[in-house]
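Predict the 3D structure for this chain.
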Amino acid sequence: MSLLDALFAPAPDPARVAWLKGAQYAHRGLHGAGRVENSPAAFAAAIEAGMGIECDVQLTGDGRAMVFHDWELDRLTEERGAVMSRTSDEIGRIALRGGEDRIPTLGEFLALAAGRVPLLIEIKSRREIDPAPLCAAVREDLLGYRGEAAVMSFDPRVGHWFRRHAPERVRGLVVTEENARGWRGAVRRRLALWRSAPDFLAYDVRDLPSPFAAAQRARGLPLLTWTVKTAALREVAAQHADAPIAEAEGVAMVAGRH
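Done. Predicted structure below.
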C-alpha cells in the first residue's frame, strides 16, 4: 500500500507543513469560563495564551462562510433552523448562548487572528450536499491572508476540491476510526486518503496509536490529534502525534494560564 499511497497521496514538501508541528491548537478557541466555543472571546483568549486555533465553518444561504460548528442553530443560540437557511447578515446578528458574542464570519475571525497564531479551519459538510460552494467561500476569505492557515475536513471531497482549485493552501484530512475498525473502515480510510491527497492528518486521539496514522506520519504527513480533553490524552498526543487540538484539561499550561 505504501507505493499506492505515494502515488495517489504524495507526502508534502516538509517546508510547506513544518509550521503545523509543535503547536498547541485550541479546539474551537479557548472556550469555557464564560467563553462560548467558536466565539471571538474564545479566539481572543487563545491568541493571548499563544495557542493556535481550530475553528469550524458553515455556509450561509447567500454563500458566506460563518464560524459555527453545528448544522443547526439550536444548541448554541436562541434561534432554530439550519445555518444555510439564513443570510450572512441574519446569522451575524444572532447572539451565541451563554455569552455576549455574536456569530462571526470567517473574514472577521481572520481579521481578529491577523497572522498572530496558526489556524486550522475545519470545513463542515454533509454527504448529500456539495461542499464546493463552502470551499469556494473559504478560499475567497483566505485570499491575501498573511498568516499560517490550513483547511481540513472529514469529507475527502473538500481536500480534492482544494487540491484542484487552491493547491497552494495546506489541506488536511480529519479521521476517526470510531465504528469503522474492520476491513471496510480500513478501505474507506485509504480511499479518503487517496481522494483528498492531504498534506496532514487530524486524527481522533481515541484511536492512537494507529498503524494507519503511524504509517502516514512516517512517510511525512504531520499528524495532529483531536480532541485532547484530559492530561492523560495529552500524554497520548505527545507520544503519537505532532500537535494536539485541545480543550478543557487537555490544554497544557501556556503563558501561565489554561
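The mean pLDDT is 96.
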